Amino acid sequence: MKIIFISNRKGTTRSMVLSNWAKALLSLCLLGLPISGGILIGSLLATGNHPIDITLINSMRQELEQQQSELDLGREDARQKVKAITLKLAEFQARLVRLDALGERLSEVAGLEDGEFDFGQQPAVGGPEQDSLQSYQHTELEALFQQLEEQLDSRESQLGILESLMMDRNVQRQSAVTGRPIKKGWLSSRFGRRTDPFTGHRAWHNGVDFAGKAGSEIIAVAAGVVTWSGERNGYGQMVELDHGEGYATRYAHNSENLVKVGDVVKKGEVVALMGSSGRSTGPHVHFEVYKNGRAVDPASYIRRTIR
Predict the structure, then answer these.
(1) Average pLDDT rounded to a whole number, residues 186-214
(2) pTM of this structure
(3) Which of 58, 152, 250, 292 could tie 288 with a disulfide, CB 3.0–4.6 Å?
């Protein structure tokens, strides 16, 4: 085999005759180049694309699924926390409504003026705005809710005790026999022995008399139940009230009784109108106080005050 080499210089050529051994080596080289190249390309294709892409895709898919699962768990956790906060706020609101109602009752019992202490309005607060404002963190919110709940428990307990005390005091004030049985008039006869206006003899007077204008209002000196309303011998038209604790009062010589047996009356309520019925010399109210069935001097109860 003869190989010719062409030179670029002056167009000269050189030739070489190859032996049989050189021919075989050259053939192997020429044939090996495409074979090895094909093997290399195939290897690159085999190891560079298909298996690695599937592994990466599967890995990314698993990571995305894990992230989606964590996101779902986070959403559910957040939803449960929002639900819990909503329920807790609803509970606080209901308890505040009860406290408002309790405060209104206490204001009424205490005799506070309208608007003096309004439980239906937010308390007035204020202050300069601070430069840095921070929002509450989750743990801080839980602590705040706990603090508010403890404060509500304390306020409810205190207001409940206060209401009980004030109601007891109010009941005591209402049922206590105090004050005069008239709005207008004057004391015309005292309790005890006196000269009887009809016979002129010394006689026992079981109550006190308040004279006034006919038709003047006669009021209950304490809350009670009407046990008599009608005419009674010597008393004319009379009203009798039972106040409990062994106390009873009578209002006699009325021109008209305004209550009937079984009625529940409040302290200061009008029960009759002044007149001169029965054994009487003129318009007045004969007022008696009984304690455990025995007539007592009304004077001490007329002057008595309950705070």
Answers:
(1) 90
(2) 0.50
(3) 250
